[in-house]
Amino acid sequence: MHITFRQLTVLEAVARNLSFTKAALELHLTQPAVSMQIKQIEESIGLPLFEQIGKKIFLTEAGQEMYNYCRSIQQQLEEAENVIENLKGIKHGKLTIAVASTANYFAPRILAAFSNEHQSIKIDLDVTNRQGLLQHLEKNDTDIVIMGLPPTGMELMAESFMENPLVLIAAPEHHLAKKQNVSIHDLEQETFILREQGSGTRTAIERFFTEQGTKILTTINMNSNEAIKQAVQAGLGLGIVSIHTLEMELELNRLAIVSADALFPILRHWYIVYRKGKRLSPTGLAFKNFLINNANKLWSIPS
Ligand code: PGA
Q1: Which residue of 61, 169, 242, 275 has the smallest Cβ count within 10 Å?
Q2: Helix (H) or strand (E) run with residue 40 in it
Q3: Alpha-carbon distance 301 to 303, whole Å?
């Protein structure tokens, strides 16, 4: 059997996504290039790896076996990289980190303070939504993930390091902005601007309304906190966002936090998360401790 590591990477991506198109996108390749690599592996092992039924592709038995080996080879390589990092020590270390889009309002500040203390480390930061973070955890391809509620169904180490209150926001001239003790009934006829499916904030908001026994009638979806804040400011509707996203708007009085003490804030927490059994590099470990000890000092919730 003659297979290159590149081909194993392609096989792993196609098998995990069960899609040539998604694998091609993820690996920045064209779909024919992905199909060609898979064909070459199939020729090399003498068995098909995938079968197509209708529009879907499935792993064959040989495909499943090869996928299992791909994953364990990738894990071994990751471990080897960590061992080498250990030998180099933190001085020339590398920190690979993925954070929720909402956490990116404070993460750069913490990273800047950390890299000030350890000037020669290299940082690789991916900012994505909760769904993207789950994929990072699944692939185990970052040292650390910063997210809201860690998922169940995956063996993880998770430590909460800071509160993440979600507040109700409106344009200062909105009729609810000046009202005191807004109730759930006041919200029933309002338009809400929500984050996209796959966002942790959105999941928390949906859970909140279900617990309140209420359905919001009109929602507009937007895939960034910045877009939501702009839309709320323009009077398109109400928003529910993490208070961490609001520092500037509150300071400049561009947005108002609606008074609804019985309902808000929705109390959430930020967690530092990685796969159970992962051997954190000295840099990863140092960052984890730095974050836990300093996050609250480097960030203050706007009053
Ligand atoms: P998101 O992040 O809404 O930007 O996905 C928050 C979270 O992980 O809960």
Answers
A1: 61
A2: helix 31-45
A3: 6
Q: Is 274 exposed, middle or buried (0-12, 13-18, 19+ CB in 10 A)?
A: buried
Regarding the domain delimited by 5-74, which CATH topology (the fold level of the hierarchy) does it fall under? Arc Repressor Mutant, subunit A (1.10.10)
User: Which helix (H) or strand (E) segment is 80 a member of?
Assistant: helix 61-88
pTM of the model: 0.73
Separation of CA 69 and ligand 1 centre (Å): 32
CATH of 89-162+269-298, one of 3.40.1410.10, 3.40.190.10, 1.10.3720.10, 3.40.50.2300: 3.40.190.10
**pLDDT, tens only, 45-58:** 999 999 999 989 99
Instruction: Tell me which residues have their CB closer than 6 angstroms to ligand 1.
Output: 100-102, 129-130, 147-148, 195, 199-201
**Mean pLDDT score of the chain:** 92
